[in-house]
Amino acid sequence: MSALPLHPRFVSLEGGEGAGKTTVLAALRAALEAAGDEAAGSEIVVTREPGGTPLAEKIRALLLHPGEEALAAETELMLMFAARAQHVRATILPALERGAWVLCDRFTDSSYAYQGGGRGLDAAFIDVLEQRVVGLRPGLTLLLDLDVAQGRARIESRDPHPDRIERERGAFFERVRQAFLARAAAEPRRFRVIDASRTVDEVVAEAVARLRAFAGAA
Ligand code: T5A
Hints:
Radius of gyration: 17 Å
Distance between the termini: 26 Å
CATH topology: Rossmann fold
Shape: globular
Number of helices: 8
Bound molecules: P1-(5'-adenosyl)P5-(5'-thymidyl)pentaphosphate
CATH architecture: 3-Layer(aba) Sandwich
Number of strands: 5
Strand order of the largest sheet: 2-3-1-4-5
CATH superfamily: P-loop containing nucleotide triphosphate hydrolases
Order of helices and strands: EHEHHEHHEHHEH
CATH class: Alpha Beta
């Protein structure tokens, strides 16, 4: 497969459950706003996956709260990519074409980690979907790496009602974590791995510094 283009204004946050992506995203937006027009341009779009458009948010609800029927791994994968196809075309590409920055809470790396690493689906199949359905990668991916038990403890203290994926076993999330780390090792130009076990302030400070360095170099 040919390499996909890395977009210089497209930034994703990745990591396991409770790694702190949502917390960090707010700080990244503030950092870009503070940088002003010179480095940041005038518009910053913050979005998430699965989701990011009204239709893709409906698919997210199906994925996380499908009801009684067990979701096959392949169904899960295709729904993730159905949501992503819509998100890329309706939100991400139009924003990038306007010159906006796009900050995205999870993107295709999550499919490689959760459906590939976690569920054991063939990475080559995910690669075909990425090539055909997505067609681009972020220029910068910040991977918040955290011990699985620590991440789960954070989630449990925040919300006692886990969604369908949060109810998976520890071994599933260990495979997800290793899959993320393997992707980061394979693509050092795009990924920055951040130790997310530290305090919020420390994690945010490193993430903002990584984004500033990337934006400054763009
Ligand atoms: N998925 C997604 C796939 O399987 N395949 C895919 O292709 C895609 C795109 C999405 C689910 O879908 C799966 C992955 C997910 O299971 P989600 O609700 O978006 O569901 O799940 P998460 O992305 O995991 O979001 P969470 O909100 O659960 O985790 P975050 O955003 O990483 O963490 P955050 O910032 O909300 O923080 C969690 C708690 O920890 C605290 C926060 O205050 C909060 O209470 N916290 C810290 N505490 C101490 N120290 C720190 N450094 C802290 N940082 C945050």
